[in-house]
Amino acid sequence: MSPGRRIRPGYPAAMQSVKRRGRAVADRVVEQRVAQRVAAASAGRRGRGLVLLWHRVRPEGPGEDEVVRSVATADLAEQLDVLRELGDVVALAELEHLGRRRRPAFALTFDDDDPGHVRETLPLLRARDLPATFFLSGRWRTAAGPYWWEHLESCARSSGVATVAAALGLAPTTDVRALAGALTGTPGSLRLTSRATGGSDTMTRDQAGALVAAGMEIGFHTFAHPSLPSLPDAALRAALTAGRDELAAELATPLRRFAYPHGHADARVAAATRDAGYLSAWTTAKRVARADDEPMRRGRWDLGHLPIDRFRTTVLRGLARPWD
Ligand SMILES: [Zn+2]
């Protein structure tokens, strides 16, 4: 027996108890992870997959004054690693033709002309050799500048949310996201783009080119980012194609896939999107991906805001969901 044990006779027993509890917790974590991998593999054998969606990625993570909440770079890195642990990250084209597989498939998508796609996300993808699809607008091509909600953020930072709400004739609020929600799908949202106050950080042509050079797929997301169900037929057809061919020519890559602005689509919008020549179109409805999905109403999961444990369990629950 060691001198320490003679001096503190209760210590070894207490330590052993702590160690036992620690081992039990570790065992439970291992059992949980094994069960999760078994559940994921089962989803893969049934030909299931999920498409994930992110918007802004910033080193510092979300800010209180953002309309579209950022995801921290370190959090995205953890999320990508969870997906690689549970399944295989594949190109969107491969996920559209999903068969039975040993592990579930995940595809990664990123929306909007956000410079964080290149500064933050691209290095994470390259380090892990992962494919992704970026749905862009090509707003750097004209003087229109950032999206309407980025103008809203700029206005709110310089004048205050309440002042901006009053100027737009909307109900009083001090919450910039509530204000954006009230504007989404209204003509007022697009009128904001004519009130540019500068200061927003927008993707450049060279940054978009870097995504293409890295082998990433580029899809289209409309130029002006309207809520498409709110548009009459002629304006809908114009929104689906305006700027598409120019963007494809500038980046020297075809734009075969489409992401609905704000995720909004209905049967009329889906039919017009098919007529505009896209191979597939993506909403923000949380649906399991399967080979026979309706091509113009496919689902994506926006989970970037979740803490990593909830991200993991939500992905697993998503894979286990009954067919929609
Ligand atoms: Zn968008």
Automatic annotation (TrEMBL):
It comes from the Bacteria. GO terms for biological process: carbohydrate metabolic process. Its main location: secreted. This is NodB homology domain-containing protein. Gene3D superfamilies: Glycoside hydrolase/deacetylase (3.20.20.370). It is found in: Secreted. One of its GO terms (cellular component) is extracellular region. It holds the Pfam family Polysacc_deac_1. Residues 104-324 form the NodB homology domain. One of its GO terms (molecular function) is hydrolase activity, acting on carbon-nitrogen (but not peptide) bonds. Keywords: Signal. PROSITE patterns: NODB (PS51677). It comes from Egicoccus halophilus.
